[in-house]
Amino acid sequence: MSTIVRVENLHKSFGGIVVADDVNLSFETGEIVGLIGPNGAGKTSLFNLISGVIPPDAGSITLGDHRVDQLPMHHRARIGLARTWQNTRMFHSMSVIDNLLIATRRYPGESLARILFRRRALDAFRQEATEKAVALLERVGLADKMHEMAIELSYGQQKRIGLARALMSDAACLLLDEPMAGVEGQAYETIIRVIREEAQAGRAVCVVEHNISFIRDISDRTVFMFNGCVLASGSVDELTRDSQLTDLYFGGEHPQ
Amino acid sequence: MEYILTVMVLIGINVILATSFNLILGYGGLMSVAHPIFYAIGAYCSGLLAIHLQIPVPLSILIGAGIAMVLSFGVSLPSLRVSGDYLVIASIGFQLGILHVINNLDFTGAAGGLTNIPVLNEGPSRSLVFVLLIAVVAACAVFLVGWIVEGDYGRAITAMRNDEEAFSALGRNAMNIKIVLFAIGSGMAGLAGALYAHYFAYVTPEQFGIFTSAALLTMVVVGGAATTWGPLVGAVLLTTLPQAITFLGLPVSIMAPLQGVIYTTLVIFFLFARPQGLTGGSRGGGGLEAWSASAAFRARRDAE
After folding, report:
1. What 8-state DSSP symbol labels residue B42?
2. pLDDT tens-digit profile of A55-92?
3. Could you tell me which of B209, B180, B192 has the C-alpha nearest to residue B39?
4. Distance (Å, rounded) from C-alpha B7 to C-alpha B254?
5. CATH number, residue A105
6. For every residue of chain A, which 3-state class applies, written as one string?
7. Which of A117, A247, B181, B287 could disulfide-pair with A252, CB 3.0 to 4.6 Å?
8. What's the half-sphere exposure (Cβ side, CA atoms, 13 Å) at B170?
9. What is the pLDDT of residues B177-200, one digit of tens each?
């Protein structure tokens, strides 16, 4: 195992609200880390810090060999970071397949010059990306929705599209923000299977989720956050045996 | 006859302006209202170069468009930091600032305007030739924008407009796209301005103010934002409509404000009754719906 993401002494506050208080964490290849904690603990903020939505006040974030904490979001994604969002954030005036086609690591269609002068290479690239997108949609069980508008699908389906979209770039690190919210039945099994397969393929996966049984099912290691701090780390059972943590989770006081 | 040809020239100019504005505002979702200032920059730069440096008119037109393209950084750079309402304000500042400079410099003719600009072509059928030229340029503008917004690049533009943050998180560079859209759109506006200047031989600063921003916005919204043909329909309609009103024989004191009333009424009507504009489809694409949906979507998301 080698470390994919290393977060050291990370600090971030908005005015008086501290969302990351000296956070130290690392995600290893092939590992699934569950990130739990009550609302407002700083879980999504941590994702935002790692992916570059918000800049940290202090501390460092490394991705592979790259120090990324000062890089813009799209650089980090190109180095090998992919994430999903709590509220799916589909491109709503685009079809499902287009939502995926825009998400490749490299997107030559971003340059007008290349569209003008490298037509053939671009066609080949699009072909390859389309095949990959279709395969991913099949994996999440939504290949038949390919040409529908993403926004017209159910919330649970959008969650699966979001997961497939994040997988388009073959990123070394996957940050999944509540992938199970609104997902039921068969789709639940599908998502668990896909996440496991991705970890087996050598990716580092971090999952934020309120569904504790899901975290128990899937994670190799669970991290408990509260008020921007990482309070504990271990298996779900170890964490839930700690009455102080369960109190905090269900609305207790900050430990002194 | 001459009158009709002149109206056709104006239609052509407005088609170029509305089409290029649509690229920035409709497709790009970049809320800049400063489009007329690039129209002004093209007109003034080309006019001044032809007057003072005796540069051949066709060349000065191209240089004027090029300068507008380069100066588009004045709006595209702020757009990297601010968006939405804040970009509207930043762009108004840019527009009024430059307009103020033009208004107060002697060599631009100040408030009185720039006169005696050499015309592009002369001769008995001058207007007819110019109409044909402008029709070709306008057609090229429509097709250029149509080409930019389709396929792989169009997908990137749409995704950026829908959700810039999610777009960036996928590794896409929103900055490049904004700069390119502003440069191409503003260059086209500069070209329109230069053509205008070398046809009418006279421009004044007041042609390029907020009223023109409102007129262009109306053309885009009424025709259908983020559609290929919408701005063309809007430009034809909103150039001929005010001309038609002049035949009513109303006194000038009523005529002038009436235009503003018509534009405003149309925008409000279309915003509520037909946000996709005259040409927009019913779903998933064109029209103001493309933004209003984005705005509603973002508001809902942020509320969650």
Report:
1. H
2. 999 999 999 999 999 999 999 999 999 999 999 999 98
3. B192
4. 21
5. 3.40.50.300
6. CCEEEEEEEEEEEECCEEEEEEEEEEEECCCEEEEECCCCCCHHHHHHHHHCCCCCCEEEEEECCEECCCCCHHHHHHHHEEECCCCCCCCCCCEHHHHHHCCCCCCHHHCHHHHHHCHHHHHHHHHHHHHHHHHHHHHCCCHHHCCCEHHHCCHHHHHHHHHHHHHCCCCCEEEEECCCCCCCCHHHHHHHHHHHHHHHCCCEEEEECCCHHHHHHHCCEEEEEECCEEEEEECHHHHHHCHHHHHHHCCCCCCC
7. A247
8. 31
9. 999 999 999 999 999 999 999 999
B140: its two tokens:
């090229």
Q: Is residue A256 part of a domain?
A: no
> Token pair 């008086």 is at which residue?
A16
Q: Do A74 and B284 touch (CB under 8 A)?
A: no
A119 located within any domain:
yes
Report the percentage of chain A scoring pLDDT > 90.
Answer: 75
d(C-alpha B207, C-alpha B13), whole Å: 13
Q: List the single residue in B with minimal CA-CA distance to A50.
A: B169
Q: What is the CATH number of the domain that holds B216?
A: 1.10.3470
At position A98, the amino acid (one-letter code) is: D
Q: Tokens 């009333």 belong to which residue?
A: B261
Inter-chain contact A89–B152, Cβ cutoff 8 Å? no
Distance from CA of B304 to the nearest CA of A (A): 8
Instruction: Please count the structural domains in chain B.
Output: 1
Q: Is residue A175 part of a domain?
A: yes
Domain count, chain A: 1
pLDDT in tens, B106-130: 888 888 899 999 999 888 889 999 9
| Cβ contacts of A22 within 8 Å, gap of 6 or more | A9, A10, A11, A59, A229
Predicted local distance difference test score (pLDDT) of residue B294: 52
Range of the structural domain that residue B50 is part of:
2-303
Round to whole Å and give the CA distance between A81 and B202: 56
Query: Phi and psi dihedrals of A135, rounded to 5?
Result: -60, -40
The answer as to whether A9 is a domain residue is: yes
Cβ separation B152–A122 shorter than 8 A: yes
Is the pTM value of this prediction over 0.95? no
In the block, tokens 């896409």 appear at: B172
Q: What is the arithmetic mean of pLDDT over A128-133?
A: 96
CA distances from B142 to A93, A219, B17 (A): 22, 54, 10
Residue B125: phi, psi to the nearest 5? -100, 35
Answer whether B283 touches A (CB < 8 Å).
yes
Structural domain that includes position A166? 3-250
What pLDDT score does B287 carry?
Answer: 53
Tell me how many residue pairs between chain A and chain B have CB atoms under 8 A apart: 106
Q: Which residues contact A252 (CB under 8 A, 6 or more apart)?
A: A244
